[in-house]
Write a structure and sequence with these properties.
Elements: E1 2-7, H1 12-25, E2 29-35, E3 55-59, H2 65-74, E4 79-82, H3 89-94, H4 96-118, E5 130-136, H5 161-180, E6 184-189, E7 191-193, H6 202-212, E8 216-219, E9 225-230, H7 231-244, E10 250-253, E11 258-260, H8 261-275, E12 291-294, H9 309-315, H10 323-336, H11 338-344, H12 348-357
Parallel strand pairs: 1-2, 1-4, 2-3, 4-5, 5-6, 6-10, 7-9, 8-12
Antiparallel strand pairs: 9-11
Helix pairs in contact: 1-7, 2-4, 4-5, 6-8, 8-10
Length: 360
C-alpha cells in the first residue's frame, strides 16, 4: 500500500484531490492529511471519508519542523503532494508576512523532512519516492490582452506578495532538485473552481451573493482575464504527473477556458436563472442589477493564460470539463450543500468580507 502525505488536504483543492484519489485507488493507497485548519481548512470537506482505515488526519502547521518530521518517522511516506499555502491575493496585500512564512518557510520544512526521510547514505534517494509541489500561474506575472501564453520556460515575474511567495517556494524546490537531485516535480495551475471552494474566491462568492440578493463586487472594469480549470481535472493532472511525469520537471496545468471576470459573473447569473425552479422567489433578484464595480485591486494582473502543451504531449493529460459544464456542476454542488456554505460564511469570514468590500 503506497502512502501519500497531503499537505493542506482540508482546503479546497486538497480535499478534492483526496476524494479523487480514493475514488480512483480505493484501498490500494493510504493518505495522511496534514492541515493547520486555518479559515480555509475545513474538515467538513472530508467527513464522508474520515472513517476510512486508510486515512489519517493530523492537525499540524507545515512550519513546525518537529511535527512534520514526526509524521515521516511514524509513516512510510512514499509520495508528498504539497498543497498547503496561503493563496488569496487580497489577504497577501493586507498581511504579506503570513504568506512568506507559510509558503516559503513551510515549503522549506517539507523539503527538509522529506529529504531526511528519503536520502540514502550515498546521497541518492529511495526509489519510487516523489515530492510534488503545487504552485500557480501567477508566478509568471501578467500577459498582454491581445495574446501569448505561459509556458514552463516563461520567466517568473510575480506582482503580488502572494505570487512572490509562491515563486520563492518554487525556487526552493528547484534548488533542491538541482543541488541534491531531490526527486520532485512542480506543477503550475490556472484558476481552479468547483466544490468546497471557500467563498472569498470569485466563483463561490458570486454564487452565494447572487442567491442571497447581495451585491456582486467586481474589481475595476471587470475585464481581467483568467484561465479557469475545473478542480477535478486538476486533481487528475496532479496524479498523472506523479505517475508519468519526468522527475525534476515542471508541468503547467491549464484549463483552456479564458474568461473575463465580468463574463464569469454573467455566466453564473444565467446558469442560476436556468437551474432554479420557476417558482423560486430568488429569481426575482438574480439579475445584472446586483453587479457593483469596486476599486481595483492593487497590482491587479490583467491576464493569465496557460499553455498545457507539455503535459498533454508527455503525459496525455488534457482538461476534460468545459466551463459551461463545470460551472453547472459547481452550482449544483452548492445547491446540495447549502449547510456547508452557511457554516463557512459565518464569523471571521463575514468580518473579512466587510473589511475587503464594504468601503470600496
Amino acid at each position: 500500500m503506497r502512502t501519500y502525505l497531503v499537505t493542506g488536504g482540508a482546503g479546497f483543492i486538497g480535499s478534492n484531490y483526496i476524494h479523487y484519489m480514493f475514488r480512483k485507488y480505493g484501498d490500494e493507497i493510504k493518505i495522511i492529511n496534514v492541515d493547520k485548519l486555518t479559515y480555509a481548512g475545513n474538515l467538513e470537506n472530508l467527513k464522508d471519508i474520515e472513517g476510512r482505515d486508510n486515512y489519517r488526519f493530523v492537525r499540524a502547521d507545515i512550519c513546525d519542523s518537529e511535527a512534520i518530521s514526526k509524521i515521516f518517522e511514524e509513516e512510510d511516506i512514499q509520495r508528498v503532494v504539497h498543497f498547503a499555502a496561503e493563496s488569496h491575493v487580497d489577504r497577501s496585500i493586507k498581511n504579506p508576512e503570513v504568506f512568506v512564512k507559510t509558503n516559503v518557510l513551510g515549503t522549506l520544512v517539507m523539503l527538509n523532512a522529506a529529504k531526511a526521510a528519503w536520502e540514502q547514505p550515498d546521497g541518492s534517494f529511495l526509489p519510487d519516492h516523489k515530492f510534488l509541489h503545487v504552485s500557480t500561474d501567477e508566478v509568471y506575472g501578467s500577459l498582454p490582452e491581445d495574446g501569448g501564453y505561459f509556458y514552463e520556460t516563461t520567466p517568473y515575474d510575480p506582482h503580488s506578495p502572494y505570487s512572490a511567495s509562491k515563486a520563492s517556494s518554487d525556487f526552493l524546490v528547484k534548488a533542491y532538485m538541482d543541488t541534491y537531485h531531490f526527486p520532485a516535480n512542480i506543477t503550475n495551475c490556472s484558476n481552479n473552481y468547483g466544490p468546497y471552494q471557500f467563498p472569498e474566491k470569485l466563483i463561490p462568492l458570486m454564487i452565494n451573493n447572487a442567491l442571497q440578493g447581495k451585491s456582486l463586487p467586481v474589481y475595476g472594469d471587470g475585464k481581467n482575464v483568467r484561465d479557469w480549470l475545473f478542480v477535478e481535472d486538476h486533481c487528475k493532472g496532479i496524479d498523472m504527473v506523479q505517475e508519468k511525469g519526468r522527475l525534476f520537471e515542471t508541468y503547467n496545468i491549464g484549463g483552456h477556458n479564458e474568461r473575463q471576470n465580468i463574463q464569469i459573473i454573467h455566466t453564473i447569473l444565467d446558469t442560476l436563472q436556468d437551474m432554479l425552479p420557476e417558482d423560486d422567489p430568488r429569481l426575482a433578484h438574480i439579475n445584472e442589477d446586483l453587479i457593483t464595480y469596486v476599486t481595483d485591486r492593487k497590482g491587479h494582473d490583467r491576464r493569465y493564460a496557460i499553455a498545457p502543451d507539455k503535459i498533454k504531449e508527455e503525459i496525455g493529460w488534457y482538461p476534460e470539463t468545459c466551463f459551461e459544464e463545470g460551472i453547472k456542476k459547481t452550482i449544483e454542488w452548492y445547491f446540495d450543500h447549502a449547510d456547508w456554505m452557511q457554516n463557512v460564511t459565518s464569523g471571521d469570514y463575514l468580518k473579512y468580507y466587510e473589511d475587503m468590500y464594504a468601503n470600496r
